Amino acid sequence: MKIEVLGTGCAKCKALEEVAKEAISKLEGFHSVEKVEDIMKIMEYGVVSTPALVVDGEVKSTGKLLNVDEVLKILKN
Question: Which CATH number does the domain housing residue 22 bear?
Fold first, then answer.
């Protein structure tokens, strides 16, 4: 599973990256978290509000800082 955290470097974006890493540490299997700060790549997803969480190329959340349980719920569905 490829998880991307989209954001230009704000505190919430960095926090979501850490939350995503913590969430995948609770899952079995291989998963990667990538922080995407390139505004052009963020725009390719159609995201206008960051932070955003993308799972396997699909935008799952925008504009809010999720907690570990919320990220786990997204990853398990």
Answer: 3.40.30.10
Strand partners, 2: 32
Per-residue pLDDT tens digits for 33-42: 999 999 999 9
Respond yes or no on whether the N-terminal peptide bond of residue 51 is cis (omega within 30° of 0).
yes
Residue 16: partners with Cβ closer than 8 Å, 6 or more residues away: 5, 7, 51, 53, 65, 66
Which residues belong to the active site? 10, 13
pLDDT in tens, 9-35: 899 999 999 999 999 999 988 889 999
* Count of domains observed in the chain: 1
